[in-house]
Amino acid sequence: MFGVLFPNRSFPMDISTFSQIDTVHWILDMNTFVGEAYDQIREMCIFLLNGFSLPPDKALAVYIQSPGSPFLFCGAVSLSRPSAVLSLPWPEPGGQMQITSPDSVPISAKIGVSVEDLSSLPSLDVTAQKRIEHLAMKVGENLFNFMQSFCGVDGSRLVVPMDILDRWFKKFQERAKRDPEYLKGFVL
Fold first, then answer.
1. Do 117 and 169 lie in a common domain?
2. In this structure, are residues 85 and 45 in contact, taking their beta carbons and an 8 Å threshold?
3. Cα 82–88–93 angle (5° rounding)?
4. For the Hikeshi-like N-terminal domain, which residue ranges apply (predicted)?
5. Which structural domain, as residue segments, surrounds residue 9?
6. Chain Cα centroid distance, residue 28
7. CB atoms inside a 10 Å sphere around CB 6
C-alpha cells in the first residue's frame, strides 16, 4: 500500500515495518526503530506503491506522537500527490508519561498512518504551509524595518515617501542577487 523512507537514516521500508491496528490504521513504534533518539528524525518520505490504488477521495494521513502527547498531523499523500517529504516537528513529551505497567518504560514515540477522507484534512503539507507563512512574515518584517527608517510622524500617522515600496523592492532584489545566502535566511 505505502512505503516510507527516513532520509539519511534508512532504506525504503514497506508497510510490513508498521503494526497494523485495523484496516485503515498503522503505527511505527520509534523505540524499535531508533530508541530514545526519535526526535533526531526530522523528515520522512512517504509514498504510495505502484500496485495500490487509493480511492480519489481518500488520502494517507501521517501523524507523529511523542511519549505522553497527543498525535500531531504532519501531512498526507493522495493519488494526485503520491509521494511527499514531510517534516516531523516532534511535540514536547507530555507532562504525564504513560506507563503500561509498573515494570515497563514509558510508551515510545510513534508515527501513525491512516486512510482518511481527503476533504477532512487541513492541508496535505503542513510544513510547507508553515514555511510560506514564516517567509511572508520575515519579508513583511524586512519591509516594515526599511519603511520605519524613512518614516516621519504627522500627529498620529506615519508618513513615508511615495516611492518607498519601489526603493525597498529594488534593494531587496539587489541584495538577493549579490548574496545567494540572503534569501535562505527568510525560510525555516
1. no
2. yes
3. 145
4. 19-121
5. 2-122
6. 18
7. 19
**Cα dist from 130 to 8, 60, 136, 188, whole Å:** 24, 20, 10, 9
Q: How far apart are alpha carbons 98 and 182 in whole angstroms? A: 45
Residues 63 and 101 in one domain: yes
> Does one domain contain both 13 and 61?
yes
Which amino acid appears at position 173 of this protein?
A: Q
48 confidence band (pLDDT: 50, 70, 90): very high
User: Buried b / exposed e across 22-44, counting CB within 10 Å, b at 16+?
Assistant: eeebbbbebbebbeeebbebeeb
Q: How many domains would you assign to the chain?
A: 2
pLDDT one-digit tens code per residue, 129-165: 666 777 778 888 888 888 888 777 777 777 888 888 8
Q: In a 3-state reduction of DSSP, which class is residue 77?
A: strand
Cell numbers that stand for 134 in this block: 514564516
Same domain for 39 and 116, yes or no, is yes
Would the pLDDT of 170 be above 50? yes
C-alpha cell at 187: 525560510
